[in-house]
């Protein structure tokens, strides 16, 4: 019930805020989240799922991981720098015992090359580690969305660079969702996506659940 109300509030405010120069992207969405937190106290030390719309649209996240204390703070349309900008609003206040990240896919259609996606990801991890140096992080690879097939090479290159970088980091687990979401021939699987061929349907999230759950801590 609470989850449904939060999603409704976010939808009513819209995915993005005005492009006015004096108003940061997604400010209204974040203010909606803060307002919700005032109405309903967040759980203490949750497993925090944060990132872009693939997180936000996981509407049954709490039921999916019912045996864990999880919380969804995704922002639809967010890029890596947006999550960095709002760390003090949607990450640190919850004192998460674990963070599950999915972000970076929305950077690539802007023409951003893989090394820039990596650089932004490094900044994001550094931002988190500045205040949460020991908190375990699960990093979900960029997925192969059929609507973005033309960016496939950049997605693959980004995933490779980020995976190698994360091997050098403390308490970060890489979860490859890219490969399991392709056919044996390496083609996209439209049947696990919604009609927009960008967002996951229930079958797509079943794949994610199977891959992510072993990384979660009680």
From TrEMBL:
List the signal peptide residues. Answer: 1-20
In terms of superkingdom, the source organism counts as: Bacteria
Record keywords? Signal
Which SUPFAM superfamilies does this UniProt record tie to the protein?
SGNH hydrolase
- Residues annotated as domain SGNH hydrolase-type esterase: 59-207
Q: Which GO terms describe its molecular function?
A: phosphatidylcholine lysophospholipase activity
InterPro entries on file: Ester_Hydrolysis_Enzymes (IPR051532), SGNH_hydro (IPR013830), SGNH_hydro_sf (IPR036514)
What PANTHER family does UniProt report for this protein, alphabetically? SGNH HYDROLASE-TYPE ESTERASE DOMAIN-CONTAINING PROTEIN (PTHR30383:SF5), THIOESTERASE 1/PROTEASE 1/LYSOPHOSPHOLIPASE L1 (PTHR30383)
Q: What is this protein called?
A: GDSL-type esterase/lipase family protein
Source organism per UniProt: Chitinophaga sancti
